[in-house]
């Protein structure tokens, strides 16, 4: 799966990009027709500690799924986003297989 990582208001290091790629590659276990993923990592300028935002958009044939999570670290936000996407993909797969 092709994963594009976009950093907003900061520069992203290779370790974080690798983590995102590795985590999102696991989504193919749940639904093998995922085409690509766009990940937007943002830092909000607030005094709140939970100022890291991860928006993950994945493209599957006929649909797009978008998840947005805000946490203390990007790793945690990406992890929570991926878990939400796993549930969405499992639901989609079940829905499609029930129509066949």
Indicate the low-confidence ranges by residue numbers: none
Number of helices: 2
Number of domains: 1
Query: Percent of residues in beta strands?
Result: 25-35%
Strand order of the largest sheet: 1-2-3-4
Mean pLDDT metric: 90
Structural class: alpha+beta
CATH fold assignment: Double Stranded RNA Binding Domain
Going by CATH, the architecture would be 2-Layer Sandwich
How many whole angstroms does the radius of gyration measure?
14 Å
* Terminus-to-terminus distance: 25 Å
| Apparent shape | elongated
The biggest beta sheet is recorded as:
4 strands, mixed
CATH homology-level superfamily: Ribosome hibernation promotion factor-like
Organism: Flavobacterium limicola
Pfam family, one: Ribosomal_S30AE
Protein name: Putative sigma-54 modulation protein
Question: Mind explaining what this structure looks like?
Answer:
- A four-stranded mixed β-sheet has the order 1-2-3-4, with helices on one face.
- The two termini are 25 Å apart.
- The protein has helices spanning 14-25, 74-99; strands spanning 2-8, 36-43, 52-60, 63-71.
- Helices cover 38% and strands 33% of the residues.
- α1 runs parallel beside α2.
- By secondary structure, the protein is an alpha+beta fold.
Summarize the structure in short.
This protein is α+β, with helices and mostly antiparallel strands.
Task: Explain the layout of strands and helices.
Elements: E1 2-8, H1 14-25, E2 36-43, E3 52-60, E4 63-71, H2 74-99
Parallel strand pairs: 1-2
Antiparallel strand pairs: 2-3, 3-4
Helix pairs in contact: 1-2
Pfam families: Ribosomal_S30AE (PF02482)
Protein name: Putative sigma-54 modulation protein
């Amino acid at each position: 799966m092709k994963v594009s990582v976009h950093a907003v208001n900061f520069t992203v290091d290779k370790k974080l990009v690798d983590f995102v790629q590795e985590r999102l590659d696991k989504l193919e276990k749940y639904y093998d027709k995922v085409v690509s993923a766009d990940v937007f990592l943002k830092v909000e300028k607030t005094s709140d500690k939970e100022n890291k935002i991860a928006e993950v958009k994945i493209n599957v044939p006929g649909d797009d799924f978008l998840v947005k999570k805000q946490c203390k670290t990007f790793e945690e936000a990406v992890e929570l986003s991926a878990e939400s996407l796993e549930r969405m993909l499992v639901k989609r797969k079940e829905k499609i297989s029930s129509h066949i």
